[in-house]
Amino acid sequence: MKKQLALAVALAAASTSACAYEKLSHSYVEAGFASNEVELPTQLPAGFSVDDMTANGGFINGSIAVGEKFYVFGGYSQGKDDKLGVDVEGYGRVFEFGTDLKQAHAGIGYAHQLSDRVEWNGEVSFLRTRFEVDQGFFDNDTAEGDDYRASIGLRGQLARNFEGWVKASYTDGDMYDKEFSGTLGGLIKFNDSWGIVGEAEMGSDQKQYRLGVRWSF
User: Fold this and answer.
1) Which residues contact 190 (CB under 8 A, 6 or more apart)?
2) Which residues, other chains included, contact 34 with Cβ-Cβ below 8 Å and sequence gap of 6+?
3) pLDDT by residue (tens digit) across 176-197?
4) What's the pLDDT band for 45 if we cut at 50, 70, 90?
5) Contact criterion met (CB below 8 Å) for 21 and 106
6) Shortest CA distance to 36 belongs to which of 58, 16, 17?
7) Is the separation of the CB atoms in 49 and 39 below 8 Å?
8) Could you tell me how far CA 89 lies from the centroid of its own chain?
């Protein structure tokens, strides 16, 4: 009787453990706060310097699974920095201006399961970036362009209510100049549908930080 009871308890525990880790979802919508830090070009006359941009705003991203291994994804972010300044050596700040940064992206990904809790994935995507400078009484300057990105990474269930991922990317085109970047992210799950998501992407010229709410389906 004791052996049968012990076996029943062990099976129940194994069943509970197996159910605790759900398959990683590629169908979700997330939104929240975004911050973009950009090192502006330094090709200025001697003695002149300009602040680096920190554009704070918001983002919305989404992904939808297509079959067992593929998924499509996309998103949009926007941020502003109203206090960028130009300094002249010996005179201090001589001019201030504002900036508005907008970026949209879309792509397709492939995920391969390495275990019940870990997968590797590869992605290719297209980025559209628009950068506008508000010079007050002067005409606004606008720069916009298209870029392409390739990424590869690992994603896994690190705990029953925590998911993490790491990714390496290469971006090139009009606005990015053969830039390599690394991304580290995590998802704290309240239940199967809702969670808090955070992500940091670090490149040589640009850094992006995101914190928001994700709904998985």
Assistant:
1) 161, 196
2) 56, 57, 58, 59, 77, 78, 79, 208, 209, 210
3) 989 999 999 999 999 999 999 9
4) low
5) no
6) 58
7) no
8) 37
Amino acid at 172: D
**pLDDT digits over 58-82, tens only?**
999 999 999 999 999 999 999 999 8
Confidence at residue 40, expressed as pLDDT on a 0 to 100 scale:
66
In the Cβ-directed half-sphere of 91, how many Cα atoms lie within 13 Å? 10
- C-alpha span between 11 and 8 (Å, rounded): 5
Question: Which stretches does DSSP call E strand in 114-192?
Answer: 118-134, 141-159, 162-173, 179-189
CA–CA distance, 212 with 195 (Å, rounded to integer): 9
Please answer whether residues 73 and 114 qualify as being in contact, where contact means their C-beta atoms are separated by less than 8 angstroms: no
Contacts of residue 198, defined as CB under 8 A and 6 or more positions apart, other chains included, come to 185, 186, 187, 210, 211, 212
pTM for the complete prediction? Answer: 0.82
Least confident residue range of 28-42, 131-145, 166-180, 190-204: 131-145
Secondary structure E strands in 39-140: 48-50, 53-66, 70-88, 92-113, 118-134
Residue 92's contacts (CB-CB under 8 Å, 6 or more residues apart) are none
The residue type at 111 = A
Where do the H-state alpha helices sit in the chain? 2-20
Phi and psi angles of residue 97, each rounded to the nearest 5 degrees, phi first: -150, 165
How many helices and strands in the chain, by DSSP H and E? 1, 11
